[in-house]
Structures are given as structure tokens and as C-alpha cells.
Predict the 3D structure of the following.
Amino acid sequence: MGKLDGKKVAVLVADLYQELEFWYPYLRLLEEGAQVVAVGPERKVYKSKFGYPARAALSAEEADPEKFDAVVIPGGYAPDHLRRKRELVEFVRKMAEGGKVVAAICHGGWMLCSARVVEGKRVTSFYAIRDDLENAGATWVDEPVVVDGNIITSRVPDDLPAFLQAIISALSGG
């Protein structure tokens, strides 16, 4: 029995995703017993920044926020591709508005900006998108992990252990 038995988590994927920021959460959440589903703009194989493949099991149109407990948004350049798909932006917005766990690392914060879910929130990210988050109404801080309600953010791959501890804690109720 894992801490997350019965929980369902979407991990978003698109071309040029950051390998560690996709695979570490994907595998770590599986290890805790969650049902983990890769969701992309289309149901197909996407290549990471270094060409490593990840298959989206669901397309944006197929992903129903009512059926998920959390969404993880990895970084790399993928978030710029993800936010071009209106259905994925709406998926993230509905997850956030529904009080479900919405976790973004590195450039994943771009999706939070596009979904308009960071106004008044305390967040972190890769420093290069600090202005984007602040312009979207967030208060940006330089910390390994920031939890503000149901929004969990981290900066870089080195922060992944703290990021996943926060996600697992939020999903397991403690």
C-alpha cells in the first residue's frame, strides 16, 4: 500500500520537456501508488530536450479535470508548447479552481500564468520567468519549494526531492 493509492495524477508533456522534471515526478508518484497519466496536446510520443521519448496516454481533449487529483507541469521548453493548447490551459485552470493540487517546476510556471491562477499567490520558478509570474500577479520568491494553498512550485531539477515531498504530502493529507 502506497501513500497515494487511489489518487490519479496527470503529468503534462510536450516536445522539449526537461527529462528529470517529467520522469522523476512520474516515477516517484507511481512508486507511492498513484495512477500517473502523461497528458499532452495530442496522444503521441514527445521528445525531450535531449531526444528521450515520453508517450502521452491522453490528449488535451481527453483529459477530464474531474477525474484527476493533481497535475504536475514539468519545465524545459515544453510549457511554451503546452500553453498553446487552449484545452490544456483550461485543464490547469479547472484543476486549480477545483482546489486540486497544481504543481509546476522550472518553466512550468508559464502554464500557471496562462491559466491565470497565480494572482495573489506566492510562487517560485526558474529565475528567467520571474517577470512573467510577477506580471501575472504572483509574489515570486527564491526558495526550493513554495506551497500556497493548492499551488506547489519549485525552481530547478535540484529541487525535485523537496518538490515531490510537498506534492506527496498534499495528496496524502499530511
